[in-house]
Amino acid sequence: MVFKVLQLPWHVAAPSQPDLTIRRLEPRDRDTFVAHLHELTFDDFRDRFNGVVSDHWLIDYVEKSLAEAIVLGAFDGGHLVAVSELHCEGGTPDGFGESAFSVASSFRRKGIGTLLITALLEAANENDVHTVIVETGPQNVAMRELARKFGASMHYEDSMSVGQIDVAHGLETAECSIAKFKPIVFQPARVEHLKLTA
To answer: 29, 77, 94, 100: which could join 25 in a potential S-S bond, CB 3.0 to 4.6 Å?
Structure first.
């Protein structure tokens, strides 16, 4: 999948993370992505993968994701602190995409998840994905709250918390959510600068 219109990276200026940059991850970012996942706390890692996985499985997953999915990363300076993924490969029905998110515990509750899911919904819209599926463990309260914020109705299915985000509705919500951060400038010319203030 490719971006048709969405311009990355976004350079975000906010009091708590003045050097935050959101950009697409590429195959050359494999080791950085793996390191980010290894830096998650045990509980956060378990929530992300609904259990514990081997390093071999993790590397295979990262390589496949970077090759086939849209993967966006949020960097604090040069350090990867959060990732969102949109998967449409495999048996996913046309018009649907499966999402995945991981945010370092020290960077939660700072709006990074909101920014990443906004960019992910933009990418979904550009790739004719009208519904984003969210699936997480029942203990992952933060992910459920983020999904609900964008209109997902979460329910339990086979011991998992599952929901769907309507992309069009989610983007309308995103505009309101980002407005709370008071975006100042979106500068054109291949790079969008999203400046946030308190």
So the answer is: 29
SS3 146: helix
- What's the pTM value of the predicted model, to 2 decimals? 0.83
Give CA separation, 157 vs 48, 88, 131, in Å. 17, 21, 18
| φ and ψ of 64, to 5 deg | -65, -40
Q: Is 119 exposed, middle or buried (0-12, 13-18, 19+ CB in 10 A)?
A: buried
**By CB neighbour count within 10 A (0-12 exposed, 13-18 middle, 19+ buried), where does 194 fall?**
buried
Residue 172 pLDDT exceeds 70: yes
User: Does the CA dihedral 107-135-5-70 come out positive or negative?
Assistant: positive
The pLDDT tens digits for 21-76 are 888 899 999 999 999 999 998 988 888 887 889 999 999 999 999 999 999 998 88
